[in-house]
Design goal:
Layout lengths: L4 H7 L9 H6 L7 E6 L5 H7 L4 E3 L7 E11 L3 E10 L7 E8 L5 H20 L34 E14 L2 E15 L3 E21 L5 E23 L4 E12 L4 E14 L9 E16 L9 E17 L2 E12 L6 E14 L2 E12 L12 H6 L8 E11 L14
Parallel strand pairs: 1-2, 1-3
Antiparallel strand pairs: 3-4, 4-5, 6-7, 7-8, 8-9, 9-10, 10-11, 11-12, 12-13, 13-14, 14-15, 15-16, 16-17
């Protein structure tokens, strides 16, 4: 009788049973195994430690027998995710390991997701627990109702939505005092459909920000001599429709159409179309662990400006192209990502932008972690800048973009943890 992996996962349990001298003699390690949970996809650590109590959970990879590396990637339009669990043997288990996956859909609740996570962990840990003295307390059983368990990766036979997923979000805020008022409104809409062959998506976002600040001047007696109110009004919206076709396990084709308005960048209307190919040196199936991809394609942009630009344009057409190289890896020692993108217009090759950015999180030695990121952008394509000069209020309130040739940012941090290596006890009080 065939059963899906998740059907078997849902049916696995551990309980105490009489020990056998033969099994005890075969055990390769005394006591429970030590497991380091290296989760990079939002795990419920307390729930995991409560449900899987037959191992020692430790806080550092250096003292672990098994490193459990968990990553995830989008797999279902507006909300589905594929979680990849890599079981990496350390110390006495070097050379032993496995990789298991499970997939959630956009309607999967947090509780359902964490239960699937624990079930997958339990199955992957069996091969390690079975080689310790704890193996004598291990029993694997199949629930009689297991055949009725739902498999998260099984596509339904009758789907009235045809695999389409929609998500709508609305938010806003209001705050103020006597001489200051602020209002913000945000709207987001996403629609997506993902299959093995095609990926289709639509995204729309709208934001409205209205800030008012009143400045008063006083004479020597404290009487108001003048009063002026400054306003910062920003309205932005963006809509994008894209389509991606999977060609091989390394190659894909895509196209997108985008329309937008940005008050800050003097863009009354921007319409852009672009097409591209993408080649990934590694198979897409390994994307949660490593990725080295190259993207290239042409683009065409139609600009309509709110005010005449520094080049004397109120509207213009801008054909161009772009190339992008991205590298990302998630390994037991940490993760690194680097991205390089260059784009310019065919009408004037000097109108170009090149951006290099990256980030890292590395475990250097026991308890010590180093993380950070940096980016630098060479900007030569600010064709949207208005001809009218900026005043002090525009600069201070960031009401409009300013002429610049570069932009940079950087951040970094370190952390050091010491003390007891064990992390088994769960205490939710306070």
């Amino acid at each position: 009788m065939r059963r899906s992996w998740l059907t078997l996962l849902a049916a696995i349990g551990f309980c105490l049973s009489p020990s056998s001298s033969a099994a005890q003699a075969a055990a390769q390690q005394q006591g429970p195994i030590a497991v380091y949970l290296d989760c990079r996809s939002g795990c419920d650590g307390e729930f995991i430690r409560t449900e899987i109590s037959y191992v020692n959970w430790v806080r550092d990879r250096e003292v672990a027998d098994v490193q459990l590396l968990i990553t995830s990637q989008d797999a279902g339009g507006a909300g589905g995710e594929q979680h990849t669990l890599a079981f990496i043997g350390l110390r006495g288990f070097v050379g032993r390991g496995d990789t298991l996956t499970f997939t959630t859909n956009p309607t999967t609740t947090n509780d359902e997701e964490r239960k699937l996570m624990v079930q997958t962990m339990a199955l992957g840990l069996v091969q390690f627990v079975a080689r310790t003295s704890s193996a004598t307390s291990l029993r694997v059983s199949v629930d009689a109702a297991g055949g009725k368990a739902a498999a998260a990766q099984t596509a339904p036979k009758n789907d009235p939505w045809k695999a389409w997923v929609f998500e709508i979000g609305v938010g806003g805020s209001v705050d103020g005092e006597k001489f200051y008022k602020s209002r913000d409104v945000n709207l987001n809409l996403e629609a997506g459909r993902v299959t093995e062959a095609w990926k289709t998506g639509f995204e729309y976002s709208f934001s409205y920000r209205d800030n008012h600040a009143t400045v008063q001047e006083f004479d020597n007696l404290g009487r108001v001599t003048s009063e002026e109110t400054y306003t910062n009004l920003q309205r932005d919206w963006n809509a994008e429709l894209f389509q991606v076709k999977s060609v091989t396990n390394h190659f894909s084709l895509g196209a997108a159409v985008e329309t937008a308005q940005q008050t800050f960048r003097n863009q009354d209307l921007r319409v852009m179309g672009r097409a591209a190919f993408e080649y990934n040196l590694f198979p897409y199936s390994e994307a949660t662990r490593r990725e080295l991809s190259l993207r290239y394609g042409p683009s065409f942009t139609r600009m309509q400006y709110a005010d005449t630009t520094i080049f004397g344009k109120i509207s213009e057409n801008l054909p161009g192209h772009f190339v992008e190289v991205s590298y990302r890896t998630r390994q037991p020692w940490g993760n690194v990502n680097v991205n390089l993108e260059h784009r310019n217009y065919f009408t004037d090759a000097s109108k170009r932008t090149t951006e290099l950015n990256g980030g890292f999180s590395v475990r250097l030695f026991k308890g010590f972690n180093l993380n950070g990121g940096t980016g630098y952008e060479w900007i030569r394509d600010q064709v949207y800048l208005p001809a009218a000069s900026s005043n002090a209020v525009d600069v201070l309130l960031r009401r409009r973009a300013l002429l610049t040739g570069f932009r940079y940012y950087t951040h970094f941090g370190v952390s050091y943890t010491f003390g007891s290596i064990f992390n088994n006890v769960v205490n939710p009080r306070f």
